[in-house]
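At this stage, I put together a protein sequence along with its fold in token form, as given directly below:
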Amino acid sequence: MPDYGRPIEFGIFLEPAAASFATILETIELIDELGYDWIGIQDHPYNRAQLDTMTLIAMGLARTRQVGFFPDVATLSLRPPAMLANQAATLDLLGNGRFELGLGSGAYWDAIVAMGGPRRSPGEAWASLDEAIDILRAAFDGARSVSHDGQIYQIHGWRPGPAPAHRIGIWLGVYGPRALGLTGRKADGWVPSLAYVPPAAARAAMEKIDAAAVAS
């Protein structure tokens, strides 16, 4: 595995189960006390048994001092990028720069459609991520006005804000060759799921990301 010139960081992946929210908050506090670097929290808004991820992250930031948080990963098909930019910046301000944005296009399309979201083809899902990154970047980088006329998103004269506490990183939870290439070209990190990328396949996927990053 290549050396990326940065220290190894450790994190915990949590399920925001509504039935055990008190235990989740205690676990978050313990993770912070133990010195872990990150807490990633699932985002499945259509799951009736789970808490809202962004609200739980806000509570977690308020109850911790050093650990960072990210949605693992935010469901873009139910969280439009302009609204997501506002949520992310707000959380980053509340946490004094301890928020990063894990992002995915969506996967459980029947559940997404049942909640009022779109059913996207693989090509549309890829395009939604590609366009959303541009919109989010403009917001995070302090653009006074954002317009975007794309295949998926149309934004005209949006005035983003507030500004985040730091330049929020965008980490993609994606797996196909085209999406891995997008990760290398435009994203700041990759957050794979063990269910989709076993350890034996991680090296090949990272090589695709690295090649795209170098080519860009």
User: Anything to note?
Assistant: The helical segments are 21-34, 53-62, 81-94, 109-114, 122-140, 177-186, 199-215. The beta strands are 11-14, 38-41, 68-71, 74-75, 101-104, 146-149, 154-158, 170-172, 189-190. The chain is about 40% helix and 15% strand.
